[in-house]
User: Which sequence fits this backbone?
């Protein structure tokens, strides 16, 4: 029992130069990512499509004294998105946003995600919109709506596929997005919603990214 | 080049689809449901019209707040079942309230709300016919807007009657009445041994909130008034109340947008500006038929406000209804008696 516990650690100690690997940075090609999403609340329905590029990729391997290896993969994906949703009775909205998805995955491919986003939105009102001039004449504004800045953040959970189940599907995730629109009557308006996202690799379009690999060894008891 | 053409065509189709929603659809009948918007000074305000348009009468809700919602709050089961079968009801969400939207708007000011009300009436008549008879049904802060509108120029000619429910047409006087009612009623309850410790807290708080009133003291008095209402078992509670705002059945209503708009109002300078707003001195200009409704236990806008309107207005037709089991939200406390009084008043004066 005791020997079994010490054996892996003894192998490092006996020949450390063979077993301890140094941190490295390698330049790898990663495909451009196509990111279609389905957007919903109990009243809102919409869709979004984005093109993303992996800008940061970090892999951290932690070797424990027991011989177990723990791997964390961090990635940062910058995407440009075009979205549309319809909330009956409130507005239809087209949005152009940039988002920076920060994910942290374990060795089994499950990941958590935090995504700040920023962009512009143009709403269209769902009913006839009337304007009344000073003389009391009524006219219809056929493109009534508002341009606003939009920002916010999303929190999500997902699964990344190493052996892709079909075609080039890379991830499936669900996230809650709290979107902020500014200005609305000189203040902000909030809109929480849910997104179901998928990420597909466009293998014909490749970009380079530096992949940083770190190795850490636990010496503590 | 070809791709560019496809992109432009797609974008054009998308925009025409979106703007295609702006077609004017005007309903007639005894059970209509129309949603449209009125744009004024950058604010786009939803108006939901439901009910019996064949009656020739439109009852226009001027909701409370500021920052409340007619689409979310006033458009409840009672209005739907007790008022809409008789008359058409227009639920208007004011600027920075409910489902109103506006990205390029000036600072909030009471004068804008009054101007907006005029535009909403103009649009209602434009859509449904100049011969439609419009009755204002204002509540609380809506009473200030209605009074401001009706006492300006010849505006009162655009409407047929005014139903003033717990209307606060003089904020400063209202604060004095609230304080006096809280102290008087609270001390009475303490003397009778009713919920003594709770009433003592109300009285102690009210005693500290002395003139000259500020926005903060006014705010605290309203909080105290709300607290007092919770101590009175004689107030009837019916319907879904505030919880109804979460109902998915609400038409054209977004809870989070309403909350955001309430924030826009709360954090604006509007509440400071309206601290000394009053139309009491101008009330004699009004000659319209008037119905004042107030709850016996309304500490927020006490009965004294209704008494003042009844006394000062020049109308020959004026009635005061005091609902005996109601607080500030009397249309929800005693909906049957409330809407019966409203329907009767309109029937007598249309």
Assistant:
């Amino acid at each position: 029992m005791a020997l079994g516990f010490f054996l892996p650690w003894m192998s490092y100690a006996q020949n450390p130069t063979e077993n301890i690997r140094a941190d490295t940075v390698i330049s790898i090609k990663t495909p451009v990512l196509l990111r279609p999403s389905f957007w919903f609340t109990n009243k809102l329905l919409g869709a979004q499509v984005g093109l993303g590029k992996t800008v940061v990729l970090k892999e951290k391997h932690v070797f424990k004294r027991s011989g177990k290896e723990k791997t964390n993969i961090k990635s940062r994906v910058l995407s440009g998105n075009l979205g549309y949703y319809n909330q009956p009775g409130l507005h239809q909205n087209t949005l152009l946003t940039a988002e920076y998805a920060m994910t942290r995955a374990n060795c089994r491919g499950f990941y958590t995600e935090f995504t700040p986003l920023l962009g512009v939105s143009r709403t269209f009102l769902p009913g006839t919109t009337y304007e009344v001039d000073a003389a009391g004449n009524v006219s219809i504004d056929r493109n009534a709506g508002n341009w606003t800045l939009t920002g916010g953040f999303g929190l999500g959970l997902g699964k990344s596929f190493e052996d892709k189940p079909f075609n080039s599907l890379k991830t499936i995730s669900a996230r809650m997005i709290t979107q902020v629109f500014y200005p609305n009557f000189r203040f902000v308006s909030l809109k929480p919603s849910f997104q179901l996202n998928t990420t597909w690799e466009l293998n014909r379009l490749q970009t380079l990214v530096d992949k940083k690999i770190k190795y850490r060894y636990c010496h503590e008891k | 080049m070809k791709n560019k053409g496809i992109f432009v065509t797609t974008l054009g189709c998308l925009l025409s689809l979106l703007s295609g929603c702006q077609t004017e659809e005007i309903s007639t009948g005894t059970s209509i449901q129309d949603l449209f918007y009125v744009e004024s000074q950058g604010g786009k305000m939803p108006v939901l019209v439901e009910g019996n348009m064949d009656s020739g009468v439109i009852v226009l809700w001027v909701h409370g707040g500021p920052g409340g919602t007619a689409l979310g709050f006033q458009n409840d089961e009672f209005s739907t079942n007790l008022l809409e079968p008789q008359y058409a009801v227009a639920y208007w969400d004011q600027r920075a309230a409910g489902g109103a939207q506006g990205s390029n708007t000036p600072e909030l000011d009471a004068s804008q709300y009054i101007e907006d009300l005029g535009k909403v009436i103009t649009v209602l008549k434009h859509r449904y016919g100049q011969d439609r008879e419009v009755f204002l049904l204002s509540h609380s802060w809506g009473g200030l807007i209605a009074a401001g509108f009706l006492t300006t120029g010849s505006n009162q000619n655009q409407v047929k009657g005014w139903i003033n429910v717990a209307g606060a047409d003089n904020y400063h006087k209202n604060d004095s009445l609230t304080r006096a009612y809280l102290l008087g009623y609270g001390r009475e309850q303490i003397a009778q041994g009713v919920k003594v410790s709770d009433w003592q807290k109300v009285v102690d708080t009210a005693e500290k909130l002395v003139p000259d009133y500020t926005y903060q003291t006014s705010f605290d008095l309203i909080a105290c008034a709300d607290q007092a209402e919770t101590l009175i078992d004689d107030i009837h509670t019916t319907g879904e109340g505030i919880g109804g705002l979460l109902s998915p059945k609400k038409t054209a209503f977004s809870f989070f947008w309403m909350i955001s708009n309430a924030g826009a109002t709360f954090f604006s300078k509007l509440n400071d500006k309206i601290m000394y707003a009053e139309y009491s001195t101008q009330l004699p200009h009004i000659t319209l038929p008037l119905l004042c409704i107030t709850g016996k236990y309304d500490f927020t806008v006490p009965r004294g406000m209704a008494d003042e309107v009844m006394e000062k207005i020049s109308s020959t037709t004026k009635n005061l209804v005091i609902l005996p089991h109601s607080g500030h939200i009397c249309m929800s406390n005693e909906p049957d008696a409330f809407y019966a009084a409203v329907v009767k008043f309109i029937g007598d004066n249309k």
Residues 171 and 275 of chain B are 6 Å apart (CA to CA). Chain B touches chain A through 50 residues (CB under 8 Å). The mean pLDDT of chain B is 91. Strands of chain B lie at 32-40, 43-51, 57-62, 88-92, 133-139, 161-165, 290-295, 318-323.
